[in-house]
Amino acid sequence: MKLSEYAQIIKANKPMQRLMVAGAGCKLALAIATNTTVLLALYGIVMGNYNSLYLPMMVLGYVYAVPFFLLSMRTSQKKGQRASLIRYVSVALICYVGVLVLLLVNSHGNPSLTLSFPFKGGGAINLYTILFIVFFGVGYGTYYATADMPIPMVADCSDYETYRSGKYIPGIMGTMFSLVDKLVSSLAQTLVAFIFLACAGLSELPDDSTPYSMGIKVAVIIMFCVIPMLAWGATLLAMKGYTLTGAKMKEIQAVNAARKAAIEQGMSLEEAMERYQTVDQVPEQLRN
């Protein structure tokens, strides 16, 4: 295929456009917020004790992720993947408003306004830590559960392309989405380096010997909260106009099945597409 043909498919397939935005947003949010350097700067430099904080916070994040993963699967089965993605990305966005506020009020060196765990030299758990665990845990659990949700939705966009144009090209649809996914993953590390350079004036990525500065705190807030929140906002805007709901996909699959059956019986593709355009025209046995 020529590049112009790929461009034409993307131009005509509106759901695929929106899914690419949603997929890129979810992937970018996860890639940057879980970047090793960002977490080292957050727990080691801003909070002051990487050894006592990193492991407990990551374990808590995965503990929260399990129930939300199960809930997102249940919502997807009942209401469709679009509804599930919107619901749990919205929860993540709301929770990270709380995380953002906590990071803004964080005071380096003040035990009552920083994270604290009684683990490897840490202090006693305080109210700040409890609030951070709640907001971060629920937020992390929901966005981790939805991070890869756009991937299976590519199949819906492929079915829609078959419904729209008559072309069965799942490999091409997957390739286009994978390209965007890989570009975003590659961009994440570049953004991390650029933001540390722009905000903290660092010539290289920070490590455990890098001293605290307000510039590093600003960089951490941007990467740990602001960029993911903007990415989730873009995801929600993209999904607002995403038309491939669970009910719509049942109609599309029924029409595609009717056209396929007609073609197998000798009808041309053009005739089949003309004959079956809505679910009302599909034989009853193919509607379920």
Automatic annotation (TrEMBL):
Keywords: Membrane, Transmembrane, Transmembrane helix. It comes from Pseudoflavonifractor intestinihominis. It holds the Pfam family MFS_2. The keyword Membrane applies. This is MFS transporter. The chain crosses the membrane at residues 21-46, 52-73, 85-105, 125-145, 183-203, 215-239.
